[in-house]
Amino acid sequence: MTDNLYDKIAPFYAALNKDVPYEKMAAHIQKILALHGIKEGDTLLDLGCGSGNLTLPLLRLGYDMIGVDASFSMLSEARNSEGAERVLWLCQDATELDLYGTVKGTVSSLDTLNHITDKEDVKKVLRLVHTFLEPGGLFIFDINSPYKFSTVYGENAYILENEDAFCAWQNHYDKKKGLCDFFVTVFERDGKHYRRYDTYAAERVYSLDEMEAMLKEAGFRLLSITDGYSDKPVKEDTLRFTVTAEACK
User: Fold this and answer.
1) Which domains does the chain carry?
2) In terms of Cα–Cα distance, which of 218, 10, 36, 14 is closest to 113?
3) For 43-55, what is each residue's pLDDT tens digit?
């Protein structure tokens, strides 16, 4: 049977991604926010929050958090986490973002924008983020680099597993179209047996020039681009760009 990727891996997403340095990412985001006067007690939006693996570290750093994700299953996992009752969780597609008010900052991590494969939809998301940011508010997000699409994704196959699940996928990257297809098979433990699910996801590569142009069109001013969640400048072999943009007043 074919299902949404994140709905199927929600119960074990955190375990399969246990090596992702969420606490380090949150600390780096905190440093950027502080440089621009955004402090503890201010409200942040985590767009594409998944199961809250970045939302909750930011909560622990003192921010009021809103988590938005299109996957009900991922949000259900988030709501079961310690401290989750202090977060406003909203099940919304990023292209239909609708908050109750404005926020001081928005973060979006781990390929959220790459998963939006229609450029016009990315522009729509950027406009919506701008709409719900206070003037001078920050949008901090990451995108995968062209180098990562060509080398790490490419035509490679990967396996992730733990005691409850086995997840295998085959990549196909069409450089001309700028699209990478992920054909994923998940085996979920069900007692002494496993249930199999076949699913699919895709990502689009966006160059920094493309992203800067879209940000400007949406009303943002680009502040910085770094190599991942660090202060290091981007290099030829950077895998993930971290972008900081300011909502123009």
Assistant:
1) 2-145+206-247 (3.40.50.150), 148-204 (2.20.25.110)
2) 218
3) 999 999 998 999 9
